[in-house]
Specification:
Layout (H helix, E strand, L loop, with lengths): L7 H10 L3 E3 L11 E3 L1 H20 L4 E4 L7 H7 L1 H4 L1 E6 L6 E3 L28 E4 L3 E3 L9 E3 L5 H5 L2 H8 L5 E10 L14 E11 L4 H18 L7 E5 L11 E9 L2 E12 L1 H10 L5 E3 L4 E3 L2 E8 H12 E6 L2 E6 L10 E5 L6 H12 L5 E3 L5 H11 L3 E5 L1 H6 L1 E6 L5 E5 L3 H10 L9
Parallel strand pairs: 3-9, 19-20, 19-21
Antiparallel strand pairs: 1-2, 4-5, 4-6, 7-8, 9-10, 10-16, 11-12, 12-13, 13-16, 14-15, 17-18, 21-22, 22-23
Helix pairs in contact: 2-9, 3-8
The protein binds adenosine-5'-triphosphate (ATP).
Length: 452
């Protein structure tokens, strides 16, 4: 595939056309940068999250799950540094009234024509940079006064730190061990955009890995490598992924080391996931602000210490976008352009589509039989409407790796055709072998055909 085949516009159009993702509140004219996930989008993102859980909870035995509340005590955000500290430097333009992130000016455009970088148009008049807090405020209870202010969480991580003691007590784990959580986070981003890359409401997949202080560097390296492997195992092309180590002056107040896993999106290399060495900052802050001692007592050595924390923090929506971009392909077949999502089969919203060639002669009944034998094993679709060519195109565009076609001969000999999405090869097999054959295909390793 030529590198420039995929553009953000093509991804947005495909997502709308095939019911993955729509602009939110569309019948009211939309609400900037908010999106709703349709059927295939839900299935795809659920698979992304499922693979994340699987890699931590099923393939390891040192990580436990948590689902903490979105609304937390306001003191949580004072302790974490978000009240006061969680802000981006912003500049306003006195001419057009727009607000821009001061550190992103070179990637942004002034809304006036001819469009230039903010500050570079003839009319632009930018203010000095000011700090702008990104947390959404709300009030809890019937009275709107300063005592009732709460925040929608801007990250899931703090919900993990404040539960450290609970988890330690009930999980029977000792450092090194991790607590993982997936959930919605909210940030009043000033410059959201690029589809679901940056939105104000998004899902995070975060893990806090608590380690003895002397092991922090080792685990930081480990998770930096491990998390890249997760993406490449799920089909992301390694040459589209890179690790960028933060410079000293880029580090957050809590971090003694951070690396970003970046993906080559159509907008250029951008952060997909951050891996941070947070030291003992968070547990110490919450100990100070809550008065609860958050530490680990090692009964074997009689030693008491505050664990250090390594945090791989990913975005479920951003990862979903990266998988979509990496999978998008167009190829010319007999004069027609075929659009196809070459997703890893484990991520594909639908694994197999069962298609009778015609809607008569007993074919729908036999196709239904095949469908019933598969649906308990994997996400299966039955589709009998429209020409077979159109039905194949539809499945290609939603990334279905296998189509099973029932034809005239199937009625006589109970054989069917399996069509492969990527190679377009066709294989004739016994209908009764489908469950075992397709389960084996789904379990087999997979590599993007775009790697050549
Ligand atoms: P950025 O520099 O892009 O603003 P960040 O460094 O503030 O991101 P983190 O706080 O490290 O992001 O959050 C971890 C992950 O959560 C990010 O790598 C990204 O995948 C996801 N994420 C953060 N902000 C957003 C957002 N506004 N929309 C979608 N995903 C987001």
């Amino acid at each position: 595939m030529a590198e420039d085949t995929v553009t953000m516009d093509k991804i947005v159009a495909l997502c709308k056309r095939r019911g993955f993702i729509f602009p939110s509140s569309e019948i009211y004219g939309g609400l900037g940068s908010t999106y709703d996930f349709g059927h295939y989008g839900v299935l795809l993102k659920t698979n992304v999250k499922g693979e994340w859980w699987r890699s931590l909870l099923q393939q390891r035995d040192d990580v436990v799950a948590l689902d903490s509340a979105i609304l937390q005590h306001p003191r949580v955000w004072e302790a974490s540094g978000h009240v006061g500290g969680f802000s981006d430097p912003m500049v306003d333009c006195k001419q057009c009234g727009q607000r821009f992130r001061a550190d992103h000016l070179d990637q942004l455009a002034c809304p006036n024509k001819p469009s230039k970088q903010p500050g570079e148009g003839p009319e632009c008049e930018l203010t000095e940079a000011r700090e702008f807090n990104l947390m959404f405020e709300t009030t809890v209870g019937p009275l709107k006064d300063s005592g009732s202010i709460a925040y929608l969480r801007p990250e899931t991580a703090q919900g993990i730190f404040i539960n450290f003691k609970n988890v330690l007590q009930f999980s029977r784990k000792k450092p090194p061990f991790g607590i993982a959580q997936i959930g919605k986070s909210f940030r009043n981003e000033i410059t959201p955009g690029n589809f679901i890359f940056r939105t104000r409401e998004f899902e995070q997949m975060e893990m806090e890995f608590f380690v003895p202080p002397a092991e922090a560097d080792k685990w930081f390296e480990f998770w930096s490598t491990e998390r890249q492997r997760w993406y490449t195992d799920l089909g992301i092309r390694p040459d589209h992924l890179q690790l960028r180590v933060h410079e000293q002056d880029e580090l957050s107040h809590y971090s003694s080391g951070t690396s970003d896993i970046e993906y080559l999106f159509p907008i250029g290399w951008s952060e997909l996931e951050g891996i941070a060495n947070r030291g003992d900052f968070d547990l110490k802050q919450h100990t100070e602000f809550s008065g609860e001692k958050l530490e680990y007592f090692d009964q074997a050595s009689g030693e008491k210490y505050v664990p250090h924390v390594i945090e791989p923090a990913a975005g479920a929506d951003r990862a979903t976008l990266a998988f979509l971009v990496d999978a998008y392909d167009e190829e010319e077949i007999e004069g027609d352009v075929r659009t196809v999502l070459r997703l890893h089969p484990r991520l594909s919203p639908v694994k197999v589509a069962v298609l009778p060639l015609v809607k008569k002669d007993g074919q729908p009944e036999l196709a239904r039989e095949a469908f019933e034998s598969l649906r308990g094993l994997m996400t299966t679709e039955y589709d009998e409407g429209g020409s077979i060519g159109k039905r194949y195109r539809r499945q290609d565009e939603i990334g279905t790796p296998w189509c099973v076609t029932i034809d005239h001969d199937s009625i006589d000999d109970r054989t069917v055709t399996i069509r492969e999405r990527d190679s377009l090869s066709q294989e004739r097999v016994a209908i009764d072998d489908l469950p075992a054959l397709l389960s084996a295909k789904l379990a087999a390793p997979w590599q993007s055909p775009k790697l050549g």
